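Amino acid chain:
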Amino acid sequence: MKSNNAKDSHTNRHAAKNSVAKPAGDKGSDKAKLSSKEYEKKLRELQGELCALQQWVVATGQRIIVVFEGRDAAGKGGTIKAITERVSPRIFRLVALPAPSDREKSQIYAQRYVTHFPAAGEVVIFDRSWYNRAGVEYVMGFCTKAQHDRFLKFCSVFEKDIIIDNGIILLKYWLEVGDKEQERRFRARIDDPVRQWKLSPMDLPSRERWYEYSRARDLMLDATDTDAAPWHIVRSDDKKRARLNLITHLLKQIPYKHVPQKKVKLPKRSMKHAYDDEKPMAKRRWIPERF
């Protein structure tokens, strides 16, 4: 007669044999849904810290580059918006370059990106970056295999010698969305008029070429995930959690401190040269107040 322990062991082995591991991007769905109230509260706290980071960057003249890459519909745009909506666009500069012009195609590959690198007291966020060569350009045939190989060979040298050794903080984030969630988001864009603009000419081919992009991602990470400039992978099936996790991580990578601020005192309105300044406005072209 078999013991209960033996029976349990057999059952566990059977379950393990028949279980199917979730793809990396599809994990996280078992967590309870984050309420909007909870999300907004935590996001507000993190945005307050981003404002403190901004003050420190300006005060110290620090230069920071944040690179956002990932599959199409992985949530890069929403995450970048969460980072930038409470800070100054003159300090946190967003760079989202279109396809290169004929003139830019004749330049050194990274040249059009370098022109956007930060000056003292700036944070530059790249929504897609020089890593286009490792992804869309390679998969869609916009560069040769030799160009792709050369990029992977020298990219880490470029990042260390040109960026990091010049005192710029470089952070690289890859947002990984699962197969099912990407399909859901694409279908939502197709069906929703206010989101159809998000569908670029490259989006639908990226869906068709899922595994080609996966292999390109793997080659890129193998070649450019270095100690000097590591890739930080963000699970993004849950957009709200992804944003909070990424911003929390970003803040911990930068040794910023809260800079003391002078207390602001609102001055009283001077009554010198006072007149009825509302009267001249009465006959101006006011828009209809429909709401």
Q: What stands out?
A: Residues 172 and 231 are 5 Å apart (CA to CA).
